[in-house]
């Protein structure tokens, strides 16, 4: 993509006055020194009547092009081979993020010793499936199964009625996607008879289900702790048979799945709040991506074969992780965080958002004042270089409050320009929004035109780093009133946020 010319901005600034606070807390406190504030975009961070000490900081020194470039370049490097989940390289990425969190002055969260917040997941992959309906054996190529159960054995004799298995017919004029989504939202056990007209769509679902499901261990058959939503108590089976049979008299379904246990981790650091330690502003991004493109025979390419086969994920989402690291550095040096600041780099966003789902079980959502989830800010938005837009702007008044903070700079956060793409639900913010948190994603990429999204060309050379730098600085300016406790956004109505499916 052709880069646009970056305009040079002349900046001046006012002093920041903060109350001196002595805070007793179980968290290790970070000592923040007074710093000099010059050239910061006419940013007026405000002053309190009882302020006794002025803390000055220079946004052009705390968030620099050199450091942002260094961070994003490493995270998007070939060395990390696309940061795929369950690989050595994603662990190396986590080590790097933890190291940077420590360097900028964060302390580990209670649930994340050494900044690592571990959680267990299960990979559940169908291994065998046989189905007989009304005495007729259904061919294996006409079967598909999504399951969170290791073993399936369903029987229905002629003239009987199953008390546990729901039998569903999807006719030639029915909406397959909608019908399966409804079953997924219900959970439980379902035998679906699918009209042959849907064969093309069936093949896509068959391929998807065959790859298996990944589930949080704590989510299978039980609710999350700390008030997290019960929709995460996932479990059930959907067996789909492509057949012209329209009425079930009897059936026999036998199947099993291979279950593999493994672990992943988020990286979480904290900057303890001075006067409002139990009010949290959460900055987040995901550090996983798609790994290495498989070779023709389906196995990952070796190093000699890789060439440009690595999904580097520079924009998605090394850019966001670099942003939260440098925002952490900025606010640590500013020293004006009356609220606690939490910085979370999530894993498993690309395979179902399991990192943020586990994270949500480790916090009290009522304590989270807002979530600033940063997703793909490496390229100029449709509104111009250095601009940013947010998802779900109409779901809380956070966007309005941020724009009030930006108004003196003649800057603004724009509403999501791609509402038909349902982006509010396609990143980690949705998990916290389901708990009522004002949780929104902030992005700049032109998704209707970008040719690099989930492609091996999403590398460091595709980014506009000066534009990315301006977005990070803008987010620092916009969220300062959140950080210093002077604004509190309205909560999201959790009842109006769609739930995750219970099976897949």
Overall tally of structural domains? 2
How would a crystallographer describe the biggest sheet?
12 strands, mixed
Q: Which ranges are low-confidence, i.e. pLDDT below 50, for 5 or more consecutive residues?
A: 1-57, 219-232
The proportion of residues in beta strands is 15-25%
What CATH architecture of the largest domain would you give?
Answer: 3-Layer(aba) Sandwich
Structural class: alpha/beta
List the quaternary state of the chains.
Answer: single chain
The first-to-last residue Cα distance is: 36 Å
CATH uppermost class of the largest domain:
Alpha Beta
Rounded mean pLDDT score: 86
Number of helices: 11
| Percentage of residues in helical conformation | 10-25%
Number of strands: 20
- Rg, nearest Å: 25 Å
CATH topology of the largest domain: Aminopeptidase
